[in-house]
Amino acid sequence: xxxxxxxxxxxxxxxxxxxxxxxxxxxxxxxxxxxxxxxxxxxxxxxxxxxxxxxxxxxxxxxxxxxxxxxxxxxxxxxxxxxxxxxxxxxxxxxxxxxxxxxxxxxxxxxxxxxxxxxxxxxxxxxxxxxxxxxxxxxxxxxxxxxxxxxxxxxxxxxxxxxxxxxxxxxxxxxxxxxxxxxxxxxxxxxxxxxxxxxxxxxxxxxxxxxxxxxxxxxxxxxxxxxxxxxxxxxxxxxxxxxxxxxxxxxxxxxxxxxxxxxxxxxxxxxxxxxxxxxxxxxxxxxxxxxxxxxxxxxxxxxxxxx
Length: 307
Fold this sequence. Notes:
Number of domains: 1
CATH topology: UDP-N-acetylmuramoyl-L-alanine:D-glutamate ligase
Largest sheet: 8 strands, mixed
Strand order of the largest sheet: 4-1-7-8-9-10-11-12
């Protein structure tokens, strides 16, 4: 079982008529997403936890989703209903909405979690922790997420934290750690990325990955030499929202199936690339066969990950 804790919301994805600099300037001057001129918009299930959990469930993993604005245990019903119906109107009344705005030249801006109408409806003490299973969380639920990480560690779970970059964020020894250059810097600079990952590996003694969007990622652990991995080319880029969440799901899926790490990394990277071909990360999740076929279509990239 993989327990996924964190943000669950609706993503309102908008395509702006402004160029990136204009979009960022609007943000700096306090112009809300709803005030930005847009060509179109799409509403879909989103949030880091929902994106990751839905991918895992689509691939047949045993998953439990817990997060904001849901009663304890209701996350899996939400996932199943979304897989079967994708009915936005049915879930819209009780989920907060995050605005994600893309400029026509590729810049992105989104509503921060603190601006959302997030209701914490669960208790970190009563989550279904299972020793030996995986637990993963993003930091957006604040102290609840931190307490849950500590409880999961006490229960003997394997820990995977995403974007736990805050000074007070608990990262138990041996945890898997993932974040992106959007949060910690080093974009398009492999040397800086390797230095950042090396520091984290030494500190936490676990697998660490730093993603850099279409430029690939750096990963390593005490037993896996640190290095840069090339990206799988996205066949179509409509929206990159949630690609990192799908990448996390890919790592968890491979690890839960005891795959060799190179196979796991290939699967995660290919899944993330394919997820960019639709609006949001939940509109059209590629299945396992599609991901494996896509890896086979790019043997030169797959070979670069090692045997």
